[in-house]
Amino acid sequence: MNKNNTLGFVMGVREEIQIFVLALIAVINLITVFFSVLIDYQSKLRKRSMIIIEITTFGLMMADILARSFDGFNSVSGFLIVRISNFLTYLFIYVELISLNSYVHTFIDMKQKADRHEKKMLNIISYIGILMLVISQ
């Protein structure tokens, strides 16, 4: 098999490879959620933040898989699935930012008393982002 045929084959299955990798990452996130529930050495807030991050990452991957799978369908249902999946993709990014902010602040609070205004500002910016996302869709 020469180099041009190999490249052509890879380009032909590129979309399937991307969907497989996204599904693999989604499964890894579910496994991480399972083990995060089992551990006891983290505080409840840190554990909750980690579980929310992993679940939203799973949702992000699944929404992206749906958007990629139904992209190019010339029907109303295909259009709606792609639109809803894209909306969920952007929404999950903001939810992850809020959860990651909470997770990081649990570490900062352990070392020193952190300024609560910094945490509130990032949450407010994320909520404004969610509001703008809802308005734009």
What does this structure look like?
- This protein has 137 residues and is mainly alpha-helical.
- Helices cover 87% and strands 0% of the residues.
- It contains five helices and no strands.
Features:
globular; 5 helices; 137 residues; mainly alpha; 87% helix
The percentage helix is over 70%
Question: Sheet bearing the most strands, described?
Answer: none
End-to-end C-alpha gap:
47 Å
Helix/strand/pairing category:
mainly alpha
- What is the count of helical runs? 5
Number of strands: 0
The overall pLDDT average reads 81
The sequence of SSEs as H and E is HHHHH
Strand content is: under 5%
The backbone outline, from C-alpha atoms, is: globular
Oligomer: single chain
Helices and strands in order:
Elements: H1 3-12, H2 14-38, H3 44-70, H4 76-111, H5 116-136
Helix pairs in contact: 2-3, 3-4, 4-5
Summarize, please.
The protein contains 5 helices and no strands.
